[in-house]
TrEMBL record:
<dbReference type="GO" id="GO:0003677">
    <property type="term" value="F:DNA binding"/>
</dbReference>
<dbReference type="Pfam" id="PF03704">
    <property type="entry name" value="BTAD"/>
</dbReference>
<keyword id="KW-0805">Transcription regulation</keyword>
<comment type="similarity">
    <text>Belongs to the AfsR/DnrI/RedD regulatory family.</text>
</comment>
<protein>
    <submittedName>
        <fullName>SARP family transcriptional regulator</fullName>
    </submittedName>
</protein>
<dbReference type="InterPro" id="IPR011990">
    <property type="entry name" value="TPR-like_helical_dom_sf"/>
</dbReference>
<dbReference type="InterPro" id="IPR001867">
    <property type="entry name" value="OmpR/PhoB-type_DNA-bd"/>
</dbReference>
<keyword id="KW-0804">Transcription</keyword>
<dbReference type="InterPro" id="IPR005158">
    <property type="entry name" value="BTAD"/>
</dbReference>
<dbReference type="Pfam" id="PF00486">
    <property type="entry name" value="Trans_reg_C"/>
</dbReference>
<dbReference type="GO" id="GO:0006355">
    <property type="term" value="P:regulation of DNA-templated transcription"/>
</dbReference>
<keyword id="KW-0238">DNA-binding</keyword>
<dbReference type="InterPro" id="IPR051677">
    <property type="entry name" value="AfsR-DnrI-RedD_regulator"/>
</dbReference>
<dbReference type="InterPro" id="IPR036388">
    <property type="entry name" value="WH-like_DNA-bd_sf"/>
</dbReference>
<dbReference type="InterPro" id="IPR019734">
    <property type="entry name" value="TPR_rpt"/>
</dbReference>
<dbReference type="InterPro" id="IPR027417">
    <property type="entry name" value="P-loop_NTPase"/>
</dbReference>
<feature type="repeat" description="TPR">
    <location>
        <begin position="757"/>
        <end position="790"/>
    </location>
</feature>
Amino acid sequence: MAESGSPARFQLLGPVRLLDGDRPVPVGGPGVRGLLALLALKVNKVVALDEIIDALWGHDPPATARTIVHGNVSHLRRVLRDIQGDHPRGARILTAPPGYQLTVEPDRIDVHRARSLLERASAEEPDKASELLAEALSLWQGPALAGVPGSVRAPELEDLRLAVHGARVDADLELGRHAELIVELSPLVRAAPLAERTAGQLMRALYHAGRRGDALELYRTVSRATLRTLGVEPGADLRWLHERVLNDDLPVKVVAEPKPETAPVQQLPPAVPNLAGREADLAWLDELAERAEAGETAVGVVTGTAGIGKSSLVVWWAHRAARRFPDGILFAALRGFDPQHPPLEPAELLTQFLLGLGVPAEGVPEQVHERVALYRSMIAGRRMLVILDNARSAEQVRPLLPPGSRSMALVTSRSRLDGLAVSNAAKLRVLGTLAPGDAVRLIEELAGPAGYDLNHALARLCGYLPLALRIAGARLAASAQWSAQDLVDELGNERTRLAALDVEGPDDGVRAAFDVSFRGLPSEVADTFLRLGVVQCVSAGSHLTAAIGGITVAEARRHLRVLAAHNLLAETGRDAFVPHDLVRLFLRELAENELDEADREAVLSRSVRFYQAVGDRARRKMLRIVDPLDFTGVLTDAQTPPIGSFDDAQDWFTSEWENLLEVLEAARAAGRHDDVWRLARVAHTYRAVYPLLDEWTRLVEIGLEAAERSGDVLGRCWMLISRCAIALTFELPQGCLADAERALELASAIGDSRLMVSANIHLGSALTLLGRYDEAIRTLRQAVEETERTGDLELRGQALNNCAEAEKRAGRFIEAIGHQVASLEIDRTLGDDSYVVVSLNNLAELSMRIGELAAAERYVWEAVDLTISRRFVLQEGVLRLTLGRVLRAGSDVDGAREQFALALKILADANPKLAGLVRAELTDLGESP
């Protein structure tokens, strides 16, 4: 391998190619090129393996599709390695479950470079913009994505080409290049007469070149084509252009029409000095303005939680974009969420606007409908911006919206104002919190630098919320006695954080901002919101909310949507509603202050019951259940989310895990020890399938402590078995044997024969971990015999698997294979994919030990595919280690090196002990891990 090379480039706008400088590098057939294109289109993002297979083969993939993709990825990695060597900025294809990720600078991919050039051109003067856009157009070397399977499609690439071409023509029109454009555009319009933007550009070029009659004839041609093909007249923009040409009053410049003789109205308040971040939001506002310039309806609603910076964004953008609106800007503060004043009525706001437009006070009509009519007639046809800040409702806003096209309206509100989307085709933009770097920059603008770590800690504790960040920055700037560390310490305590973000005025702090939103909720929705604060839910779905509030699922869903519409929760996914971190703290304070102890106790009881019941239902879809806990009858089907498959169960546990831990901690604090250990044992199943050492240990220690405090012998026994399972999974021998022996003593004391078998299985595995193989095999074979006698299939499969592991480590490979095959048969009968993976991995290792490398590779690839589809991340790391060893035994050193590198990436943090084994393997291959 070369020590260094040059980073690769990727061409998608034409034949799909990998380039070393300007030299095309052969990569293989259509399937490999299609894979390369799919990864490059979503550069630096994970593309799921299933998505790749669907794109390459459609609905009829071959049985070996996954293996083909694995092989093609390996091939592309080798090609990239040959081109780039170890260049630090080189492209890499990473395995990132559930698929793969191409990491490279986007500018090295022609598609993303074209987008970047288009974005840069939008902020440049016409001459520079034309140059940038011409460069972008030159990136197209033929039909996009040529040479890949027909099932790989990206229609957005043609949209991008049209956008780039249209923007370049607009720039050339402003530069007066009319003759050249007539030659360029005429054949395009003949070929596609329904492309109204191109037709309009050609009409302008013809008109300004002195060919007014040809421009009018072109409109008639396009009009006939649209009527014949679509049955409608051309769009508003083309009709407006035709009228201007017909009247011979089309201005020379496209970007601005003649201003009225009187000075335009300018009611904008001052803007903040600098706007941190918000590039995507500003781009959205720019796009909305372009719609207005094109003659389309342009009403935008900027919404978000209190303190998110809605008004700051809109006002800052309006100052920057003022030249787009030569007839002026109207601004009104609607006081929709002002705690000291009622919302302004439309009649008052119309008066304000009419006076601003030059109507004398005595000329303002008495009747509201007459004011509306006068207002609309005065701004009709003008190019104006109307900003309606802090609106309460759609009804408050509608009379103030400009009529027709060419003008633009922006509304800010804590509510989404969905009604405006229905009645006025408004576009919605929900503001999120700032990116960490932008949040730090905002603090530093106010208070100066205080060290990278401190300012990042401050920004994180402020939840990246602009209002909180400004308060923190102002506090630091106002007092030399306050250091950033002092403020970090104060904000670090959740109990004092909101108080630290209060300011002197009664209505300007973070708590006050949230309180105004809360007080505006309907009473039944406010009650539901309060109950969510009892257990500090990280997220809320309709079933959990129904359980907590004692209401139906349909009512809960409606309440959550109202809370999302008021931006007190953010809808982050289907039936997933998440409060901002500071809203969570505010909500906890509310619940403590406004709900009595009996209400809080009832909410906690319902929460525990919900997670016990649904967690039990979910775990039964994931793993064989050997403990006697059964909560399946606690809730009805209507009260629980649908969990019909392994994937449903996995998704539920993943989405609810943080909530489950919060409920566990709340029940622990309330002394509900029996509930705690039972819930911990139910949740143990999920972490057994998806093991994370710290979280699993915390869960089990909480459960064991609760079982001991409750004096429940059964609980103590099962939680000791749970703790032993952690030690076995991560090969941590300390305490493992003692836990298994103590669990066996307790099981014997209460005479539970099935529990005794489970304890014996863990005891045998603990002995294996300690290297006492003969004792381990005797113990585990006794467990196998007992389960054969009782017909207990769940425990028999577990005993066979653990016995095979002990025999493998003792060098008894043939006996181990027999037990492992029997275990695998049971695993598949029970549909237990987690155990199937373990059995396949063990069979792969055993096959390698007896020299059956082809069988070993077959077993391990089957298991790898299963771990990827089931998202068993830690297990995938273990399998990659096994696969590397198998490939190395077969002299495939490059393949082994690749698999070890993948294993190390997965295991480095998840299992340090196994990661050490991987590093040793890489060192043996001459690699620096």
